Each structure stands twice: as structure tokens, then as C-alpha cells.
Amino acid sequence: MAQIGQSVPKDFLSRDNVSRTREIDYFLNDDIEGVRSCFNSSDTQIEVLAWSPKIDDLHGNMVRSFFEAWEEMPRRADNAPPNTKDFDVFRFRVAMGFMIYLDVIEGGADFRFRVFGSRVVDSIGFDWTGRLVSEMPLSANCRAYLATSYRAIIHRKEPLFLKHKIQHDETTVEWNTFLVPMSSDTKPVARILGLSVPTILSPRPARGMSSSF
Predict the structure, then answer these.
(1) Mean pLDDT computed over 74-94
(2) pLDDT tens string 131-179
(3) Is residue 121 within 8 Å of 127, Cβ to Cβ?
């Protein structure tokens, strides 16, 4: 279990290749073909990448409600993400079981799951609350893809919609994931709030540990 203030594993950047400029640039430039060329593999398939989508382009009431709740949060400066101090989980209640909430560690060298929703746990069979992205029981390629998407949000400070398929063990899940930045008094992006809605495409995994949400 990762502890508050835990250091990032020293070999994480080199092992998972999350710091390479090319991969980040593909994300920042909304170049889905470039992202696919880096990360598509037998266990990771990227289908959609969209920065700051319009609410009318989002499918499903839950995704729209999540986006609206984030957009309606107060801003303490023009064009700044909402502050974590203004986060009211009740406003996001419609999406509760599907939410993830990550701390940004050392400027994006790693990320810790503060919240890992119960419906996410149901879909993949394990609860990663309190753990680091670098520790996830996924392939190095998949961890690199997830970490790079989070790091891109730190740079652009905008909402990001992703649709991808990820395989873990024998379970393949298609995810509609909507990620939004959250600031603090000292950091432009201190946390990332997300909605991850799964569609299980292959056999359901065994129930994992209970989740925080």
C-alpha cells in the first residue's frame, strides 16, 4: 500500500517510458494516430481521444452530468481548473461508483489513486485505492499509456475524453473515460478527477476488494 508522501519508484520513468517527449506531444496535439502508434498493442487499443469536448458531443446522461458538475464548480482565477477545496462529492453523486480521483506526484512523475470507484473495481477485479499507477498489475505499455494521458492533462489543463479497450488477464473492458483537472492553492493541476464507464467485452473478473466509493 502506498503511503502519503511516498517517493516515486526510481525506475518508473525508464521502465514505463512515460517521460518520452514524442508520446506526450501526440497527446498534446490531439494526434490520435500518433498515440495509437505508440501504445496500441495486444492489451491496449485506443479508439477516441478528444480535448475539451462539447457537452452535446458526449453520449450518456452520466457523462454529461459529470461534465456539468465540473464546469459549474467555482474558478478562483480566469481559465484555471477548479480548486480541490471546492470539490463537493455530492454534486457528482450520479457518477459516484464510476469515479477515480488521483493525486499528482512530483509534478506528474507518478499518480496515486485517492479514489477508485466500486463499479471500476467490479469491472477489473481489484481495488487500487491508495496505490500508484506505477504499481498497477497491467503491462508496462498500458501503465505508460495511462500515465501519459494524465501527464498531458497537467500540461493542457483541459478536460480529456478517451475511449479505449484494455485487457487484464483474460478480461477485456472497453472504457469511456472522462478526465478533468483540479488545482490547489499552490499547483495549477494538483489532482485529476475522472469518470470511467466500463463495458465488459469478455468474461467478468472475480470480485476484488471493496472500494472507497
Answers:
(1) 91
(2) 999 999 889 999 999 999 999 999 999 999 999 999 877 788 899 999 9
(3) yes
Domain-wise residue ranges, the chain: 12-200
CATH homologous superfamily of 12-200 equals PAS domain (3.30.450.20)
Determine what percent of the chain is predicted with pLDDT higher than 70: 85
Q: Dig out the grid coordinates for 100 from the structure.
A: 477515480
DSSP string, 141-205: HHHHHHHHHHHHHHHH-S-EEEEEEEEETTEEEEEEEEEEEEB-SS-S--EEEEEEEEEE-SPPP
pTM: 0.84
Question: What is the predicted pLDDT for the residue at 146?
Answer: 95
DSSP labels for 35-89?
HHHHH-SSSEEEEEEEES--GGG--SHHHHHHHHHHHTS--SSTTPPPBGGG--G
- Which among 161, 183, 163, 181 has a CA at the least distance from the CA of 173? 163
